[in-house]
């Protein structure tokens, strides 16, 4: 293998999986012929039905993106006041709270799963707390049992940001069925995508009906508006692309599994490089491949990051900075480094390496060799 690979090609942390264009054209023709472009058309309904069956969930409501789905989930459960959440996530998690006039309260994470540490939750509860919003980070499950026990004890709602958890199964069932609601992202770089899109998983027909009102301006019929809703509908083009994507998602996850195993084998003996440990009972989707650069590595995390970039390997420090470090959040009492030591350490050590179904194995091996070479110099 070359010691300094990939001088001409670009390798990104994630890549959208695109089927051949000719397979998508018949869907487009049907949309053009029907002249139904949005507002819950036939492809929208077909995709909801297909996803319920594939994911093993009772109800799903499609959205134009995951952020609107998060915002609408909070509206669905009438969440107010304060919500306990994690700083180790994409900013949309906290932004969805602020857009609803809710104060995010940050708690530290579990170093094994990078998810919210339940042991930190009770101390963060105040009379204003109404909900918990954990994140299944990188598709690894939160401690769903402990979180639910706390929620039941204090009468709190639980909304999972499950943006990374498409098709993840835990202890024999869908991880998406935990909590009051779970929210998915179908962004282009996700395991399953609809170009842009998202969804809310709910557990009963009444809740789904409220969600569906809220994502369509609160409109119940031609003359009736029942809630101050928003325009969060998924278009027929996005839904059609989702139906096509769904046909190949199982194979795509299998390809990711192979690459996950190859990374683990290649990185296993490099000092200062650690990876996340598989969780018992978890059937993952291999959505990301984070590594953590510890003090035993001969260079800093950022040295490695920029060395990768210099070779056209577009890895990502995901999640860095922490949400709590951004100007709109860092003034809060819960945002201090002292309150978030594990999350702070993870943010300063993490690099997500390229992970997608058609990542060439020879390029993956070259990435591993670059990391190993830098560890020796």
From TrEMBL:
Keywords, A to Z?
A: Aminotransferase, Pyridoxal phosphate, Transferase
Q: Which InterPro entries match?
A: DegT/StrS_aminotransferase, PyrdxlP-dep_Trfase, PyrdxlP-dep_Trfase_major
UniProt cross-references to Pfam families, sorted A to Z: DegT_DnrJ_EryC1
Query: Annotated Gene Ontology MF terms?
Result: pyridoxal phosphate binding; transaminase activity
Q: Which residues carry this modification: N6-(pyridoxal phosphate)lysine?
A: 190
One of the protein's GO biological processes: polysaccharide biosynthetic process
Which top-rank group of organisms is this from?
Bacteria
Ion transport: present as a keyword of the record? no
Please name the catalytic residues of this protein.
190
The entry assigns this protein to a family as follows: Belongs to the DegT/DnrJ/EryC1 family.
Protein's UniProt name: Aminotransferase
The organism of origin for this protein: Achromobacter aloeverae
């Amino acid at each position: 293998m070359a010691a300094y690979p990939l001088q001409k090609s670009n390798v990104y942390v994630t890549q959208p999986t695109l089927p051949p264009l000719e397979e998508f054209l018949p869907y487009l023709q049907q949309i053009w012929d029907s002249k139904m472009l949005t507002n819950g058309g036939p492809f929208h309904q077909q995709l909801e039905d297909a996803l319920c069956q594939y994911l093993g969930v009772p109800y799903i409501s499609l959205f134009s993106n995951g952020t609107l789905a998060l915002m609408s989930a909070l509206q669905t459960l009438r969440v107010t006041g304060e919500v306990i959440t994690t700083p180790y996530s994409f900013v949309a998690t906290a932004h969805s709270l602020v857009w609803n006039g809710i104060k995010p309260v940050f708690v530290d994470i579990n170093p094994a799963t990078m998810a919210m540490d339940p042991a930190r939750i009770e101390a963060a509860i105040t009379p204003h707390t109404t909900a918990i919003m954990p994140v299944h980070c990188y598709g690894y499950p939160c401690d769903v049992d402990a979180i639910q026990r706390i929620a039941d004890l204090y009468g709190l709602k639980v909304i999972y940001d499950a943006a990374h958890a498409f098709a993840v199964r835990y202890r024999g069932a869908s991880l998406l069925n935990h909590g009051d609601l779970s929210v998915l992202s179908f962004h282009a770089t996700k395991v399953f995508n609809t170009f842009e899109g998202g969804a809310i998983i709910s557990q009963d027909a009444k809740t789904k009906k409220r969600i569906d009102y809220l994502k369509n301006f609160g409109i119940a019929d031609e003359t009736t508006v029942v809630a101050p809703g928003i325009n969060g509908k998924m278009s027929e083009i996005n839904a059609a692309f989702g139906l096509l994507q769904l046909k190949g998602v199982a194979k795509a996850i299998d390809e990711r599994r192979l690459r996950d195993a190859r990374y683990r084998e290649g990185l296993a003996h490099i000092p200062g490089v650690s990876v996340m440990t598989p969780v018992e009972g978890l059937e993952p989707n291999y959505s990301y491949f984070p590594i953590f650069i510890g003090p035993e590595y001969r260079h800093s995390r950022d040295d490695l990051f920029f060395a990768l970039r210099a070779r056209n390997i577009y890895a990502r420090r995901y999640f860095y900075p922490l949400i709590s470090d951004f100007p709109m959040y860092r003034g809060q009492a819960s945002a201090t480094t002292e309150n978030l030591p594990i999350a702070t350490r993870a943010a300063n050590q993490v690099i997500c390496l390229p992970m997608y179904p058609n990542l060439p194995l020879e390029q993956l091996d070259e990435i591993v060799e670059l990391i190993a070479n830098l560890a020796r110099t």
